[in-house]
């Protein structure tokens, strides 16, 4: 998948809008997404799956901007959701609820009810308690709920521990050794329709081996279930395909799909993919301006106007994202900087030890910021959230206004009698 969705002339790959102008018009920090790249990435999965019956369920959590969802909905995408809020966004963006899978370890009763009303494709169930809850809610509604069980195959995905999900010690899924037994319990519940097997072993995987190891285990399970009279119609392999932030060389969707298809053989299974990062990360940049340069004895700081509240990945996972000047033709002295935000935390950094030729007022682009960027933003330090723009050829659309923080409390006492 494309890494540098950014060209050296200050434009996004395949798009004609001038980023400097957008930053001047809309202020910084500013998220910018490319429609062309979103489409190209989604199609890479769709074409990779090819002739095999399949559903690409974009993981909404990666970037839930309504315009992003709308671009994918128009391509016929399905969606992987983890809350009623995400399902509402999918519907608002024109997505088809019948192509939605519902993941997550703690679905509330009202969320299950809403998803059943919307006739989603499948619930990815993570525990026996949840199977019973969904069975009860579906029974009350006089329905049968379509379910897969998320199986935890106990595989080391070789990624950051915070985004690894397929190990025994993780909260996700049911242990593979118990799966056959729990499937039998599920099949005996009257208001469930057991359709699929699901797994998701982690995010930002850069090797195929862990995915394939997991699938091999799941296929053994699926064959075993057939012997028990439980016929599985779809195999949901989750998301997790990594992207290039720096020097990583994650497998292309085509190679991944090829290997999966070879393993399916004549089993008549629909393949479900839940990619998030692979579609959105390199379809977006975060623009930020240099406020001050602060030389120091131990370190030089470039203080920029984006902070951990705008992009928390560096602070949370020590994640590395490329930071580059938008206008590379400017003549500046080079120095090594820690690029930090204005938030009052030592952990508030966007990048460390970066050699940059910059001066105060320069515009920087943080690359690969289209996934797990804006969606993880907060108002910490009472900072408003950034605006979001979608570029499409030579057009730019504001797809979310910069947030205005309003004063709710204007000095009156909130304590009774005070
Ligand atoms: C169940 C599930 N599906 C899909 C995804 C999307 O993952 P990624 O963005 O790594 O493709 C996640 C997040 O890791 C997830 O938890
Ligand atoms: N938020 C994480 C990914 C989490 C994946 C969700 N299961 C990141 O930025 O890398």
Automatic annotation (TrEMBL):
Pathway: Amino-acid biosynthesis; L-lysine biosynthesis via DAP pathway; L-lysine from DL-2,6-diaminopimelate: step 1/1. The keyword Lyase applies. It is an enzyme of class 4 (lyase). Keywords: Amino-acid biosynthesis, Decarboxylase, Lyase, Lysine biosynthesis, Pyridoxal phosphate. Its EC number is 4.1.1.20. It catalyses: meso-2,6-diaminopimelate + H(+) = L-lysine + CO2. The keyword Amino-acid biosynthesis applies. Substrate binds at residues 277, 313, 317, 345, 372. One of its GO terms (biological process) is lysine biosynthetic process via diaminopimelate. Pyridoxal 5'-phosphate binds at residues 240, 274-277, 372. Homodimer. PANTHER family: DIAMINOPIMELATE DECARBOXYLASE (PTHR43727), GROUP IV DECARBOXYLASE (PTHR43727:SF2). HAMAP family: LysA (MF_02120). Belongs to the Orn/Lys/Arg decarboxylase class-II family. LysA subfamily. Specifically catalyzes the decarboxylation of meso-diaminopimelate (meso-DAP) to L-lysine. This is Diaminopimelate decarboxylase.
